[in-house]
C-alpha cells in the first residue's frame, strides 16, 4: 500500500485524513437534504441563499450548499420530488425489513428520524428513536450539528442502555436514508448489539418516526418556547418524559406508552391478554385498570 500512496503523491496518514473528511461530509450531506426539504415545506418560496443564511450548516460552504440545493430538486422553477428526502446517493442503503412484519412485543422494531428545531436564527437538531410496538421514545438527542456523534449515536446508546445483548439481538433499527444511519460509528454499534439495519424507500415507510417529530415539536416544544440550546435540551427531556409517562395513546387503549410497557411486564405469563386496539378495562387486585383482550381478532400495530 505504501507504493500506492507514493504513486498518487500522498502519505497513508494524509490519505485517511482526506477519506475521513469525505465520509463525514457525505454523512452530513445525506441528512442535510432531508432538513432542506423540511424547511421548504415551512417556507414554500424560499430560495437557496436565504435558506443557507437561515440554516447556517456547519462544515458546508455557500457554494456547496447551492449545489446540494439544486441537485435535490429544490430550485424554485422545478417540481419537487418528495422521495428525495430519503435519498442517500453515494452512501449505503440497507434493505427495507418492515414489509408484512407482525409485531408481538417491545424491542422488536425501533424507528428513528432527525428533524430540526429553530430558535431565532439558529438551527438545532432533534433525533428520536421510537419503539414501534409500545410507541415509547426509547432514545433521543439534541444537537447543534448533524454529525453522527451528536445525533443518531447518542440516541441509540440511550435507547439500548438498559437492554441486554439477548434483547437487542435481531432488533430492527429502521430509518430513512440519512447518512447518520449508515455512518461507520452508528453501524459499528448496531453490529455489536446484534441489531438489523433497515431503511425505507419513501417517506411513507417511516411515518411513525416523522409523526413523533411533529408531536414533540408542535404539541410540546412550541408551547414551552425554549430560548436557547440549554433550554431546548431541558424542554426536550421534559417533553419526552411527559409523552412516555402521561400522554394517552388511542392505539394503546388510552394509556401512555410507559404504562403499556409496564402492563406487559406485569403479565408476562399471558401476553395474549394485552392488545393494542379497542380494549376493554377492569380493575386489577391493586385497583389499577387492566387492559383486557379486545373482541377484535386482528391487531394492527401500525395503526395510530
Strand content: 5-15%
What is the overall shape? globular
CATH class of the largest domain: Alpha Beta
What average pLDDT do the residues reach?
79
What profile does the largest beta sheet have?
5 strands, mixed
CATH topology title of the largest domain: Nucleotidyltransferase, domain 5
Strand arrangement across the biggest beta sheet? 3-2-1-4-5
The helix/strand series, from N terminus to C terminus, equals: HHHHEEEHHEHEHHHEE
User: Count of DSSP helices?
Assistant: 10
Radius of gyration: 21 Å
From the N-terminal CA to the C-terminal CA, the straight-line distance is: 55 Å
Q: Pick out the low-confidence regions.
A: 78-90, 277-304
Q: Percentage of helical residues?
A: 40-55%
What does the model show?
The chain has helices at about 1-5, 10-40, 50-55, 60-70, 150-160, 165-170, 185-195, 205-225, 230-245, 255-265, and strands at about 110-120, 120-130, 135-145, 170-175, 195-200, 280-285, 290. The protein is of the alpha/beta class. The chain has three domains: about 1-85, no CATH class; about 110-245, Ribonuclease H-like superfamily/Ribonuclease H (Nucleotidyltransferase, domain 5); about 250-290, no CATH class. The protein has a five-stranded mixed β-sheet, sandwiched between helices. The chain has a two-stranded antiparallel ribbon with strand order 6-7. Helix 8 crosses helix 9 (about 230-245).
Amino acid at each position: 500500500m505504501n507504493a500506492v500512496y507514493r504513486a498518487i503523491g500522498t502519505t497513508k496518514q494524509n490519505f485517511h485524513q482526506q477519506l475521513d473528511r469525505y465520509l463525514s461530509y457525505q454523512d452530513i450531506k445525506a441528512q442535510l437534504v432531508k432538513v432542506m426539504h423540511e424547511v421548504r415545506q415551512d417556507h414554500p418560496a424560499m430560495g437557496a441563499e436565504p435558506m443557507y443564511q437561515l440554516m447556517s450548516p456547519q462544515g458546508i460552504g455557500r457554494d456547496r450548499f447551492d449545489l446540494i440545493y439544486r441537485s435535490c430538486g429544490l430550485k424554485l422553477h422545478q417540481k419537487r420530488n418528495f422521495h428525495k428526502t430519503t435519498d442517500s446517493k453515494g452512501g449505503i442503503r440497507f434493505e427495507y425489513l418492515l414489509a408484512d412484519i407482525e409485531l408481538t412485543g417491545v424491542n422488536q422494531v425501533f424507528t428513528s428520524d432527525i428533524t430540526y428545531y429553530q430558535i431565532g436564527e439558529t438551527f438545532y437538531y432533534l433525533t428520536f428513536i421510537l419503539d414501534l410496538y409500545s410507541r415509547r421514545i426509547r432514545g433521543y438527542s439534541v444537537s447543534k450539528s448533524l454529525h453522527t456523534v451528536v445525533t443518531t449515536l447518542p440516541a441509540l446508546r440511550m435507547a439500548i442502555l438498559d437492554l441486554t445483548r439477548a434483547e437487542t439481538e435481531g432488533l430492527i433499527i429502521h430509518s430513512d436514508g440519512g447518512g447518520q444511519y449508515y455512518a461507520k460509528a452508528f453501524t459499528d454499534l448496531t453490529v455489536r448489539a446484534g441489531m438489523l439495519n433497515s431503511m425505507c424507500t419513501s417517506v411513507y415507510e417511516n411515518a411513525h418516526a416523522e409523526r413523533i417529530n411533529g408531536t414533540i415539536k408542535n404539541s410540546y416544544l412550541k408551547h414551552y418556547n425554549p430560548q436557547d440550546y440549554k433550554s431546548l435540551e431541558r424542554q426536550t427531556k421534559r417533553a419526552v418524559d411527559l409523552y412516555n409517562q402521561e400522554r394517552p395513546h388511542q392505539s394503546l387503549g388510552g394509556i401512555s406508552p410507559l404504562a403499556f410497557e409496564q402492563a406487559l411486564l406485569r403479565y408476562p405469563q399471558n401476553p395474549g391478554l394485552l392488545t393494542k386496539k379497542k380494549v376493554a378495562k377492569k380493575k386489577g387486585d391493586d385497583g389499577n385498570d387492566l387492559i383486557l383482550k379486545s373482541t377484535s381478532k386482528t391487531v394492527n400495530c401500525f395503526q395510530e
